[in-house]
Fold this sequence. Notes:
By secondary structure, the protein is of the alpha+beta class. It has eight helices and 16 strands.
Amino acid sequence: MLAAFDEQGNLINLAETIPLKQRFTCPACGEAVRLRNGSVMRPHFAHVSLQNCRFYSENESAEHLSLKAELYTALSRTEQVAVEQVLPQLGQIADLLVNEKLALEVQCSRLSEDRLRERTQAYQNNGFQVLWLLGKKLWLTKRLSSLQKQLLYFSQNMGFHLWELDLDRHCLRLKYLIYEDIFGKVHYQTKTCSFAANIMNFLRLPYRRQNLLSYQVKQHQQVGLAVQKQLMAGNPRWLRRQELAYSQGRSLIVQSDADFFPQVRPPEAKDGFCQIQTSLEPFCAAFFRYYQHQENKTVQTLYPPAFYDKMRSNHIISRKEKNTGRTAES
């Protein structure tokens, strides 16, 4: 932990200053904490005993401590920031609270999806916005884990996205326009922001007006053969899909590559996405409707949700104009 009360009752923030050794207490539980200032980890406070503190449950990693301190330094140049803000009404502590309403949680280790959902809903139910910023162990690579899906955010301009913190490169990273193909491989674009730059502006990027970007993904060939291999290996995902196909009088392994188009699609989560409160149904409907009319099925161009919504609106307007024309002729 980076914050504690000194003997005079002053709140000490180790991201700003290193005090002389004295007696310190935890701002959350009031129990004694020690100042540790060694050569391995950055200066921090540690409970003498965690037995009576319901806010802190485990020791923090060096990565977690350093990222909190660097973010505090970066954000405090332009924003009002509190480090390790105790929120009694939530029964938890925000790693960083920005402008009294935005909670930034630095997550460097795995946690259960139930606990993530519980903490997120506590913030949302009490009027806070929360952004989970992921340490190295949780970075997105080739596939989306079920936990990473619960850490996804969504905007019309940048689609599904998540935030990563890179201590070695001293930067915040945004991975956006996240889609996954039918075999689970993830596709995305990346933007970065140095801790020396305006971090708050970067955090607002997904919701700012901007040019709509796109990228292309080549489609798999001989998909039926690949699906057959997945079925022979007992892949539960493909077994369920094959069962559904059978119920409709089809078989996946004899379908053509074009039948699987588009192969790259929005991520799916059985119980929804706990960071996303808006309905995704309009986006998904517009997404699949757009690709129904694409002639080239060897490559797929992926866009932000705003693009598909615009194409859907144009289609509706065009259809109405045609209907109006027919009415006038009759």
